Amino acid sequence: MKKERLTTLFESVRKTGPLIHCMTNYVTVNDVANMVLACGASPIMADDEAEAAGITAVCSATYINIGTLNARTVTSMLLAGRKAEELHHPVVLDPVGAGASAFRTDTVRRLMDNIHFTVIRGNMSEIKTIAQGTGTTRGVDADAADTVTEENLDAAVGFVRSLAVRTGSVIAVTGAFDIISGGGAAYVCSNGHPMLKSITGSGCMLGAVVAAFCAANPGDAAGAAAAAVSAVGLCGERAYRKTAETGAGTGSFRSYLLDAMSLLTPQAFTEGCKIEER
Questions:
Q1: Beta strands per DSSP E along 139-228
Q2: How many Cβ atoms sit within 10 Å of the Cβ of residue 16?
Q3: 26 by DSSP, 3-state: which?
């Protein structure tokens, strides 16, 4: 992706300041809200069915995350997703833990049957569950058998591209290598640091940033998703360096991650992001 395009994708979020309806889980809701603010957008959280569609209507994008799934909020997710689709607003799905229980797997299937998602972002185990209808995860983490490596990267890219064609959604698989495709070209991002897996919510924060980038860059969901993934990964790298310099731990890393996003400049982003187009 050309640097000029990357700069535009990044700057658009801060120029437009989109309002993002985040239907996320109660474990990470505060981190998600703060990360959305740090990237230049604004968050609003509403998961009661009495207002889910109404709140969605005044937002620029909707982010649906099933991390702490319960029957009450499934209806709200359906109402919000349908309203966003009706208004042609981006809708992003994070199928957290799909494959870990029948309830999660069935709910993801129900959501996808009723809502056309702009972007579906998950780890490889979650995305394979979507593709196959069943799967295994390590709680809400990817199964070790699904790790993307240099050796199986080409096959993983082919799988992501094929699923994007099948679903009509941009598929974003995150891990050691991040793969994003809308069915055409695929983007492989190699930003990030393993310490991102040491805190809760890094994936949830990423999903909300993807929604913000998509809202600010209509017409290029794949490029927006790739830029968002790269930005959060780059912030993870910067947060780790700060953590190591100060001899701090995971609590500080979380704070440094938010700091890194809030302080990230267009120049630092375009110079630091590692995106290969395939």
A1: 170-173, 178-181, 186-189
A2: 15
A3: coil
